[in-house]
Amino acid sequence: MSRPTVIFLDYIEDMERAAPFIKKVCDKPRKSPLIIVSSNFDTRPLAECPASEVVYFDELLTREDYEFMDKEAFSLTRNWYTKLKAQEGITEYQGIQFGPLAEDKAQRLFSFVIKRAEIVLKIIKKYHPQEIILIGQNNKLRGLPVWIANELKVSSRFLRYRQKDGFAIEAAKKLCRCILDMTCDIIDYWARKAAVIRKPQKTILIDSRLYDELKDLSGDFSSLNGVSFIQFIKGKNARIRQRLIKTTKFLFVPILSDNSFRLPQISGIFLSYWRRLKRDRQFQKNFIYRNSAGWEIFKDIIGELIIYNFSRINKNTRFLLKLFKNTKPKLIVVRESLREEERTIVFAARQKGITSLVIQHGLLSEGTLFYTKRYPDKIALWGKAGMDWLKRHGNSETEFIITGKPLHDLHYFRKDYKKRREDLLSKIGADTGKDTILYLAACFKWGGDNLFYDVYDSPNAEYIALKPILDIARDFPDKQLVIKMHPSDQIDPEALRQSLNDYSNIFVARDDDIGTLIDNSSLVITSCFSSAALDAVILDKPLIALNLYKRKNLIPFAENGVALTVTRAADLPQAVKEIVNDKEIEKSFASNRQRFIEDYAYRVDGQATERVLKLIKEEIAK
Q: What pairs with residue 239 in β-bridges?
C-alpha cells in the first residue's frame, strides 16, 4: 500500500459551508490513500470526501499522553519569563514583574501547542504520510504540521479557507465590531479619567459581578455606612457599561484595557523588544521539547505574550497605580487571583500597600497540573478542601478564611425553588408533572479562543456528550431531559432546540435559575470540574460527573462517594440506568454527602454572605 496523504483540518466555524472547499482539495487526482484528521469533532459534512479514514484529533491521544504533555507545558511555562532581558516599562514597571501576571495565559498557550505537536507526531508515526496538507481559517495550528513535517522530511503545505458571507455582510460585521469597540473605548476613557481625579475617601474597589451578587444576597450594603464602592469591569461588554452608567450612585472603572485595535504593533516598543529578543540565540536555548530545541514551535507564543499581553499589563498597571494613588482604596475585592486581569489588580495593590481580598468564585481544579501561587492578602474560601489545596502549592494558612459560598445561601432557603418550579418548566415548554433529568453542560461553543484548548481541541466539543444525552431520551421516554446551557455559551439556544426537534422529551434552558432546575430534578449530569456539581450534592441529588478529558478527575466527586464518574461518552446511558434502577447507589451517595459538603462548602446555613460581609468590614476597619 502506498503512503497516504494526510489533510489536517484546523477548527472551522461552519463546517457545512467549508465542506465543498475541503472536498475540492480531496478530489484532486492522487495515487495515494487520503486520511483526514479533524479538529471539528463533527465530521459528518465530510462524508462525501473520498477519504479512506476520518480521525478526530482527541481520538489520537491517551491519558498517558496528556500526563506527558502537562509536564512538558508546565516545565516550560514555570519560569520562562525569568530569562527575559529586564527592561522598565516592557517586562516590568516600578518593580512589578509582568511574567507572573501572564502565567496562566502562557500555560494555556504552551499546552495548546504541545498538544498539537503530539498529534502531528502521532499521525506521522502511524501513517508515514508522503504529504501533509493543513487547511484552516486563521492557522491556529501555528503551522505546526508544516513545520514538523519539514523537520521530518515530509512534503507539506498550508491552504487557507476563507468563509465568504458576501462583501456587504462582511463589511457590516466589521463596522459593527468597530463601532462597539470605539464606543466602549470612549466610555472607558472618560470613566477612567473620572476615577483618577476622585478625592480620597473610604473606598472599596470591587468586581461588578461580586458587587451585584453580594448586594442581591444581603439586600443592601447599608451596614457599610461611609464606604464608597468603585465597581470595576472587564471585557468589551457594552450592556454592562450601559447598566452601570445608569446607576448614578456608583462609579465604575473599566480597569482592564483590551487593546482593541492591537496598537502595540503600531506603537512599536514591545514589537521592537520582541524583534531583538527573537534573534537572541542564548534565549532560544531555554525552550526544549522532547529533549531537543523547540524554539520554532514556541516562538509565536512568546511573541504574542510580549507584544499583546505585556503591553496590556503595562497599560493597566500604570493606570492602576495612578488610580490607587489618587483614590487610596481601603480594600480591593476580586473573584480570582489566577487570571491576568485580576492578578494585575492584586500586584498593583501590593505595590501600594492596599489589602486585596479574593472571594472564591469556582471550585479549584485539584486534578490539573497547572497551578500557581495566589498572591492576595486574604482569600475567602468555600471550604477546607480549597485551603488544603492552596497550602500544598505554596500559600500560607494565614491568608485563608473559610466562609462558604454566598450563593449557597439560596440553597438553605430553598422553599423559593418549589414556588418557581412550575413557572420555569412551563417557560421552557417542559411538563411540570414529569420526572426530570438535568444536564448541566459546559459550553457547546466558546466565543473567541477555546478556554479548554488544553483538554479539548474544538470549541464545540461539548457535542461529544450530546449524542449519549439523546440516547438517554430515547431509552427513558417516561422522563424528560432539560439541558441547561452555560451562561458563557455562544451557541444560539434556538439552533440547539431545533437540532433536538426529533425528541419530544428534551428541553433547553438558557438563563434560568440553576438552583430551581437542580432542586426539581431526580438526577443531575454535569462536568467533573463544574461548580454546579457541588450544588447538586448540596441539594441531595444523584450525580453523574462526566470526565471526558483523559485526565484524572479534576474534582474528586467519585473518589468521595457522592457521584458516578463516566469517562467515555458511550457509557453515559448505562450509568443513568444504574442510578435509576439501583436505589442502593443513591443511598451510598446520601451517606457521604454531608462530609463532602463540609469539606467543599463549609456550612450551608444561610450565613455565608454575612460571613463574607463581616470579613470585608474587618478589613476596612484596620
A: none
Cα distance between residue 234 and residue 361, in whole Å: 16
Run of H or E residues at 73: helix 63-77
- Residue in the structure block whose three cell numbers are 438558557: 510
**Radius of gyration, alpha carbons of the chain:** 26
Determine how β-strand 523-527 pairs with β-strand 543-546: parallel
For residue 609, count CB atoms less than 10 angstroms from its CB and return exposed for 0-12, middle for 13-18, buried for 19 or more. Answer: buried
Confidence of residue 451 (pLDDT cuts 50, 70, 90): very low
| Backbone phi and psi for residue 532, each to the nearest 5 degrees, phi listed first | -65, -25
Three-state DSSP state, 551 = coil
Q: Where are the alpha helices (DSSP H) in 79-220?
A: 103-127, 144-151, 167-196, 208-218
Q: How far is CA 119 from CA 61, 151, 182, in A?
A: 7, 15, 40
Strand order through the sheet with 155-160: 53-56, 34-38, 5-9, 131-136, 155-160
In terms of pTM, does the model score above 0.90?
no
Query: CA torsion sign, 138 to 140 to 143 to 149?
Result: negative
Residue 52 pLDDT grade (very low, low, confident, very high; cuts 50, 70, 90):
confident
Q: What is the pLDDT of residues 201-219, one digit of tens each?
A: 778 888 888 888 888 888 7
- Name the grid cell of 430: 417542559
DSSP string spanning 544-595?
EEE--SSSS-SS-TTTTTS-EEE-SGGGHHHHHHHHHH-HHHHHHHHHHHHH
* Other residues' Cβ atoms within 10 Å of the Cβ of residue 374: 19
352/95 Cα distance (integer angstroms): 11
pLDDT recorded at residue 243: 64
Quick check: 238 pLDDT over 70?
no
Share of the chain above pLDDT 70, in %: 85
Q: What is the pLDDT of residues 366-410, one digit of tens each?
A: 766 566 678 899 999 999 998 888 888 778 888 899 999 999 998
Within a 10 A sphere around the Cβ of 435, how many other Cβ atoms? 14
306: which DSSP letter? Answer: I
Between vectors from CA 532 to CA 527 and to CA 538, what angle results, nearest 5°? 120
d(CA 80, CA 285): 11
Which residues share a beta bridge with 437?
481, 523
DSSP state of 557: T
Q: To 5 degrees, how large is the angle CA 12–CA 444–CA 13?
A: 15
pLDDT at 496: 82
Rounded to whole angstroms, the Cα distance separating 77 from 100 reads: 10
Largest CA-CA distance found in the chain, in angstroms, rounded: 81
User: For residues 564 and 463, what is the distance between their CA atoms, to the nearest angstrom?
Assistant: 21
Handedness of CA 217, 218, 219, 224 (dihedral sign): negative
**Contact in structure between 100 and 81 (CB atoms under 8 Å):** yes
Give the DSSP per-residue string, 129-162: -SEEEEEESS-TTTTHHHHHHHHTT-EEEEEE--
Span between the terminal Cα atoms of the chain, in Å:
77
